[in-house]
Every structure is written in structure tokens, then in C-alpha cells.
Design a protein that fits this description.
The complex is a heterodimer of chains A (about 130) and B (about 600).
Chain A (H helix, E strand, L loop, with lengths): L5 H17 L7 E6 L2 H5 L2 H14 L5 E6 L11 E5 L5 E3 L4 H14 L7 E2 L13
Parallel strand pairs in A: 1-2
Antiparallel strand pairs in A: 1-3, 3-4, 4-5
Chain B lengths: L4 E6 L2 H5 L2 H14 L6 E6 L11 E4 L3 E3 L7 H11 L10 H5 L29 H6 L4 H9 L2 H11 L11 H10 L6 E6 L8 H8 L1 H15 L3 E7 L3 H16 L15 E7 L8 H8 L23 E5 H13 L1 H5 L9 E8 L5 E6 L4 H8 L9 E6 L5 E4 L9 H6 L8 E6 L4 H15 L5 H18 L6 H16 L3 H5 L2 H9 L1 H8 L15 E3 L9 H5 L5 E2 L7 E2 L9 H5 L5 E3 L1
Parallel strand pairs in B: 1-2, 5-6, 5-8, 6-7, 9-13
Antiparallel strand pairs in B: 1-3, 3-4, 9-10, 11-12, 11-13, 14-17, 15-16
Classes of the chains: A alpha+beta (about 130), B alpha/beta (about 600).
The complex binds flavin mononucleotide.
Chain lengths: ~130, ~600
């Protein structure tokens, strides 16, 4: 991309804003965001990530995007991931290893059932969206 | 099958013991009784924090947060909330309680946390500039470049009341203004990402989770103060943060948000990364600048302050990572908005790394003025393993401890200093009854002694002397006069040391002497360590009426110090015992104890 003008940056922001709000990554209906800060990685976030990719492969799902983010602040339950599925509240899962990852894909993404014992709370409301989510 | 509601029942240990399991079961049976079982999923979750308010039930998607729920409330929750769609007001957590320190009316929240610095951490993909842009990223830069004069920016920071988050709490607008006012055609902007306090990782997480916020803020400072070049000084021990910063800088350059003629404004700015080798003293601003210049990282006397005469003798604005991360939000939402958060003395929020004997360790961001009790018990879930809270250490090797009596003090720069500790960079280490105050203090002194650069003698010699006295006390050789000696040396170091390291290194001692004098006296006079930590002062023993002679401890003892026949009372030979504690861990009958 070439250097941007003010107008181009504003246009990009509007376009990406609606995409991010819907968490609509290239037309996928579900998104799994893995916390990949140093803490998450040290606690095994890579194993969780691989678990998600393997499960998505195994169940032949093509509507799920897997992306990464920084630390969510919940050090005591790393690795953490956020799961965003159309028609369901966004959920943060903690203590996710490859096995839990597979369960999340099967229960949460495919059958819209949350996975017990691993749900945690988003630590704070969003100052940009003016509310909890 | 689409579900209408999800009922989350907290399954943390606190809530479980207060009856969360019965609530869970009752909710299931009520949903069946009232015919909504197919529309609702009931889930047990991990700990929500807020353990003191438990058991906790949260219902999604409405985000209703119910506290102190009793098993018999299940019926009403289902009939009212699920069937009729009405919240059960009597059980709802009072949201105003959380808004107490953040008078920001448009956000409804039940959490005690309020995220300005960490707004994007754990939310966006830090390696994708588009996600940052989508979250109002670079909008503050736009506003500054095209709608604000440098004076407007400084005025906004002044209204905001932002103070430096690196420890000292100096008003940021003043620093920027000093640099702006000096006439010089070369000026610099520096980000202090050295973060060396034991137990602190706020800055690392911010850089890893939201690198663009720092780049944007530094560019804004460049425009405001008349600098076209910035440096980020970061320790080489933070490879992931460095990688994400490099990716972010590459993307920003590609978009023309760094480099010449940013967004066609005519203003140009670029940033370079400088790696530090991880010396604590290089976090001190003048030592840091020396290190960037390629010199040995040693402090020099101030004044002149870096704002006037800094990097290569040029005016230099230097701020901490967290300070930088606040800047874009302040300029977007306005200084007025920011100044409504916090206390009279300190505005905005503070990020703390909550560690130690705490149930839910983690990174928390709270409005200034939040009490320690709220942080430790509401957010952190209290002390792990049912132990008692003893003290919390803030300010790292420059700070001190805060005790139970002061848990309700609203936290800000002034209040912590008043208690003999300090805000520091935000490490918060919680201690319980098993932690020995003298031992912990010795750890901090040991750290400062190791990290002293040796340039000035008060710090080099004074620090070592303090450490030796503490060491003597923990070994049972302490004398009463040692206490006065420590106070005297500490006072001299505070006055005469060249930089903050030596000036604050005695703080852990002075603060613990003030609050825990009795514990020092136990070590010195009674030759006893009440917490059972100082090896030279404790002995392991076996209780005659509890020992059944199972031999488990004797088999585990690495030095064969435990004597006794099978089914006979065992005994520990104090001359052989190395006090490793394996017997205590091994005994299933509680027969081993420490004296
Ligand atoms: C021994 C010592 C270590 C320091 N370490 C750091 C550090 O790691 N990070 C930091 O931002 N400030 C550190 N400081 C404070 C800096 O000297 C300086 O005050 C700060 O970078 C100013 O930024 P602020 O106004 O945004 O807080 C340290 C100070 C001393 C005396």
C-alpha cells in the first residue's frame, strides 16, 4: 500500500471498523482469537492454537478464522482465547490446551453450547464501544 | 438450535464453598420445571474475582451480574429473568459502586476495572495495523496534525492532569512544555521501555498487545515539541515485544504514518529501537540516555534535566510506556474526560501487575482512587489457599509495604507516598502469613545492591552495608543497635545518592521497620522467625501425638536426619537437618511442624 492521505486513512478506518465490530474476517462466521503475549505463549498458547487448527481441519470447517491478540490480563488462567460465533455472546475461555480447544470447536462453534469450567469474564468494558460486550 | 440465554454460575473455590453447586443444580431443575430447558444453557465457569460477593451468577446476553445469590433464588431468576425477560433487581450488583472512581457516565460496567492503557490488549491483533486503525487508531494523530497547535496539545495534557507512570509521577505536560520551549533545531522523543522492577510486566504486555499506540503517541510528542526523531529503549529480554514493535513500525512506514510528510501534513517523524542489556539502572532516565549514546549506563546529576539537555545534549522528552499509551486517548476524548477519572491528586488509571499469594494473579487496570482492598479482594479474588493477608508490596525495590489497616486507602501517588511506599511502576506483590518480612526486605536490598552501578559511594557502600545487616539479622546474629544503624545509613543514602536507585533503595527497610518492627525484634531478640522462613532460626520437629511411625518422612529425607522405627515415634536430628521442608510436605498426618 502506498503512503496514505488523510482521506484514505479515514476511509480505511470506517471500513475496518465495521469489519472489526462484526469480527467479520474475510466472510467467516466464527472467529477464535488466541492470547499470544509472552505470558500466554509461556503457558502453552501455541499448543492451544495448534489444537484449534487441528480440530478445524478434522471437522472440515471452512467458516472459522483463527487469529492472535496480546495479553488479556488473566494470567492465572492462561492460555486464554476469545471465541466469537454468530448469534452467541462473545466468550473468553481460560486454561485452554489442545484438548479443550477441540471441545470448544465441537461444542461451542459447531453446536453453540458453551464449554463448562473454562468460561471466564472479560475484565473490563470497552471504552470505545461505550459498554460491556 | 439457537439458545436464548446462557446462565453462568461461578465455579471458583470461593463461590463453590458458598453454595454455587446447589445454585447450579437448582437452576437446571427450575429451567426444566418452568419449561425453558431447551432455550437455556447453564454453565459452570472459572473464578470471576469478586469472591467476597459470591456466589455469582451472570446471565448472557444481557450481561446481568448477580451477586450473593442463594440456592432458593434460582426459581425467581428463571421465572423473572429467563421467562419474563426482567432483571431481578434485588440481586443485581450495584453498578454505581464501580463507577465511583470513574465518573464517566456513558459506560455501564460492573467490573472494577477501567481500561484506557490496555484498551486494545487482548482485543486486536497487534501485528495488524488495520485493527488498530479500526479502534480509533491514529485518529488522535490526525486530529493533532490537522486541527491542533502544539500549545493546544500541551493544554489538553494539562487539563487532563496526566502524570508520568514510570514511577515519579511528574506532570507530563510540564515536561513536554520544557522541551517545546527550548530553541533547538534537533530534539528527541524517547520511550522508556526498560521495565526492570521484579514482578512488573505491564509495559511488556502493552507493547506486545498494542505497539501502535506507543508509535502514535511518540509521533504526537514529536509534533508538539518540535522533534523529528524518536527512540524506544527496550530490554533485549523482551523479544516478542521487540518483534511486534518492528512489525508495527514497518506497517506504519508503509502507510505513511511514520517517515516524511505524515498524511500530507508536512510533518516528518521516525523512530528507532535501541536494545538495552537489562540493567535496572538503565531505566533511570539519564543512565538510559547515556546507554543510547553508546556510553556505559550510568546516571549523571540532574539538573540539567533531559527535557532541556538530554540525548546528545539536545532537549529530550522521555516518558514511560504506560504514559505514552494514555496520550492518544486523552487527545481523542479530551483532557476533560480524562480528568474525571481518578482522584484530585492523580488522574486516569493505573495498570498493576498483581502477583504473589493472590488467587487471581494478572494484569489489572483500575481508576486511580480504587482501594487496595478492591484490587486484591474484588479483582484478585483474595489470598490463595485460605491464608491470611499480611501485606502488599508496591513500588518494587524503591517502595515499601502496605498493611491490613491501610487496605481501604484510595490509591494515588500521594496516598502511597504518605504510607511510606510509592506507586512505582505498578508491580504489586501480595504476601500472606507465610512470608517473612525481613526475608522479603533482604530480597529487595539484594536486588538493589546487584543493580547498583557503583558510580556514587552512598549507594555502592550504603546498599551493601544495609544488606549485610539484614543478612546478619536473618541468620540470628542481629543486635538491637542494628536497627538504628540501618535507619542512619538509610537516611544518608536517601540524601546523598546520585540517582533514584540509591535514594530509594532503603525504602523497603524503612517501611517494614515502621510497620513490622515486632517481626524484626523477634529475629533479633528472640532469635525466632515468626513466619518460619529464615532457615537459621527455625527447626523442624515431630509431634508425638500425631506421628504414627509410617516412615514416609524418613524415606524422603535427603540427609537421613529422621530417626525412628516403623510404628514408633520419629525424631528429627537437628544437627543433620538441612531444613529443606520435605518432611513437612510429605507427612499426611500433620505431625511435622516448624518452630
Ligand atoms: C533506578 C531507576 C530505575 C528506573 N526504571 C524505570 C523503568 O524501568 N521504566 C520507566 O519508565 N522509568 C523508570 N525510571 C524512571 C525514569 O527515570 C523516568 O522518571 C521516567 O522514564 C519518566 O517517564 P514518565 O514521566 O512517563 O514516568 C527509573 C528510575 C530509577 C531511579
Amino acid at each position: 500500500m502506498a503512503k496514505m492521505t488523510l482521506e484514505a486513512l479515514r476511509a480505511l478506518r470506517e471500513e475496518k471498523k465495521s469489519a472489526l465490530n462484526k469480527r467479520d474476517v474475510e466472510g467467516k462466521t466464527a472467529q477464535i482469537v488466541v492470547g499470544m503475549g509472552t505470558c500466554g505463549i509461556a503457558a502453552g498458547a501455541k499448543g492451544a492454537l495448534d489444537g484449534f487448527l487441528a480440530a478445524i481441519d478434522e471437522y472440515k470447517l471452512d467458516n472459522v478464522a483463527v487469529t492472535q491478540t496480546g495479553c488479556m490480563g488473566l494470567c492465572y488462567v492462561e492460555p486464554t482465547v476469545e471465541v466469537i460465533v454468530e448469534g452467541m455472546p462473545n466468550v473468553i475461555y481460560g486454561k485452554v490446551d489442545a484438548e479443550v480447544a477441540k471441545k470448544i470447536v465441537k461444542d461451542h462453534v459447531m453446536h453453540k453450547q458453551m464449554v463448562s469450567e473454562h468460561v471466564f469474564d472479560r475484565p473490563a468494558a470497552d471504552i470505545f464501544n461505550g459498554g460491556g460486550k | 438450535m439457537a439458545l436464548r440465554n446462557y446462565i453462568l454460575v461461578c465455579g471458583g473455590t470461593g463461590c463453590e464453598s458458598a453454595g454455587a453447586d446447589s445454585i447450579y443444580k437448582n437452576l437446571i431443575s427450575e429451567c426444566e420445571l418452568q419449561g425453558v430447558a431447551d432455550e437455556v444453557q447453564i454453565i459452570k465457569t472459572g473464578c470471576f474475582g469478586f469472591c467476597e460477593q459470591g456466589p455469582i451468577v451472570k446471565i448472557l446476553p444481557e450481561d446481568s451480574f448477580y451477586v450473593q445469590v442463594k440456592p432458593e433464588d434460582a426459581k425467581e431468576l428463571v421465572s423473572e429473568h429467563i421467562v419474563k425477560g426482567r432483571e431481578v433487581a434485588r440481586l443485581l450488583y450495584n453498578k454505581n459502586e464501580s463507577k465511583k472512581h470513574a465518573k464517566v457516565e456513558d459506560i455501564e460496567f460492573y467490573q472494577k476495572q477501567f481500561r484506557i492503557v490496555l484498551r486494545n490488549c487482548g482485543f486486536i491483533n497487534p501485528e495488524n495495523i488495520d485493527e488498530y486503525v479500526a479502534r480509533e487508531g491514529y485518529a488522535a494523530l490526525e486530529k493533532v496534525l490537522f486541527e491542533m497547535t502544539p500549545d493546544d496539545v500541551i493544554n489538553e495534557l494539562k487539563v487532563a492532569g496526566l502524570r508520568g507512570r514510570g514511577g515519579a509521577g511528574f506532570p507530563s505536560w510540564m515536561k513536554w512544555n520544557f522541551t517545546k520551549q527550548v530553541e533547538d533545531d534537533v530534539k528527541y522523543v524517547v520511550c522508556n521501555a526498560d521495565e526492570g522492577d521484579p514482578g512488573a510486566y505491564m509495559d511488556r504486555s502493552t507493547l506486545e498487545g498494542d505497539p501502535h499506540s506507543i508509535l502514535e503517541a511518540m509521533t504526537i510528542a514529536g509534533y508538539t515539541c518540535g522533534a523529528s526523531k524518536g527512540y524506544i529503549y527496550i530490554r533485549a529480554e523482551y523479544p516478542l515485544a521487540i518483534k511486534r514493535l518492528e512489525i508495527a513500525m514497518g506497517q506504519a512506514r508503509e502507510y505513511g504514518l511514520l517517515g516524511e510528510d505524515i498524511l500530507g501534513s508536512g510533518f516528518g517523524f521516525d523512530i528507532e529501537i535501541r536494545l538495552g542489556a537489562g540493567a535496572f539502572v538503565c531505566g533511570e532516565e539519564t543512565a538510559l540516555l547515556a546507554s543510547i549514546e553508546g556510553e556505559r549506563g550510568m546516571p549523571r546529576p540532574r539538573p540539567p534535566f533531559p527535557a532541556v539537555k538530554g540525548l546528545w545534549g539536545r532537549p529530550t522528552v522521555i516518558n514511560n510506556v504506560e504514559t505514552w499509551a494514555n496520550i492518544p486517548v486523552i487527545l481523542l476524548k479530551g483532557g476533560e474526560w480524562f480528568s474525571k477519572i481518578g482522584t484530585d491528586d492523580s488522574k486516569g488509571t493505573k495498570v498493576f501487575a498483581l502477583t504473589g499469594k493472590i488467587r487471581n494473579s494478572g494484569l489489572v487496570e483500575v481508576p486511580m482512587g480504587t482501594t487496595l482492598r478492591e484490587i486484591i479482594f474484588d479483582i484478585g479474588g483474595g489470598i490463595a489457599n485460605g491464608r491470611e493477608f499480611k501485606a502488599v508490596q508496591t513500588g518494587g525495590p524503591s517502595g515499601g509495604v502496605i498493611t491490613k489497616e491501610h487496605l481501604d486507602t484510595p490509591i494515588d501517588y500521594g496516598s502511597l507516598t504518605g504510607l511510606g511506599s510509592m506507586m512505582g511502576s505498578g508491580g504489586m506483590i501480595v504476601m500472606d502469613e507465610d512470608d517473612c518480612i525481613v526475608d522479603v526486605t533482604k530480597f529487595y536490598l539484594g536486588f538493589s545492591v546487584d543493580e547498583s552501578c557503583g558510580k556514587c559511594s552512598p549507594c555502592r557502600i550504603g546498599g551493601r552495608s544495609l544488606y549485610n545487616l539484614l543478612d546478619k539479622i536473618t541468620k540470628g546474629d542481629g543486635e538491637m543497635e542494628d536497627i538504628d544503624k540501618m535507619k542512619e545509613i538509610g537516611a544518608a543514602m536517601k540524601k546523598a545518592s546520585l540517582c533514584g536507585l540509591g535514594q530509594t533503595a532503603p525504602n523497603p527497610i524503612l517501611s517494614t521497620l515502621h510497620y513490622f518492627e515486632k517481626e524484626y525484634l523477634a529475629h533479633i531478640k528472640d532469635k525466632r522467625c515468626p513466619a518460619g522462613k529464615c532457615k537459621e532460626l527455625i527447626s523442624y520437629n515431630i509431634l508425638a501425638d500425631k506421628c504414627i511411625g509410617c516412615t514416609a518422612c524418613a524415606r524422603k529425607c535427603p540427609v537421613d536426619a529422621i530417626i525412628g522405627e516403623r510404628r514408633q515415634l520419629h525424631r528429627i536430628d537437628p544437627d543433620l537437618c538441612i531444613k529443606c521442608g520435605v518432611c513437612l510436605e510429605t507427612c499426611k498426618f500433620g505431625a511435622v511442624f516448624v518452630r
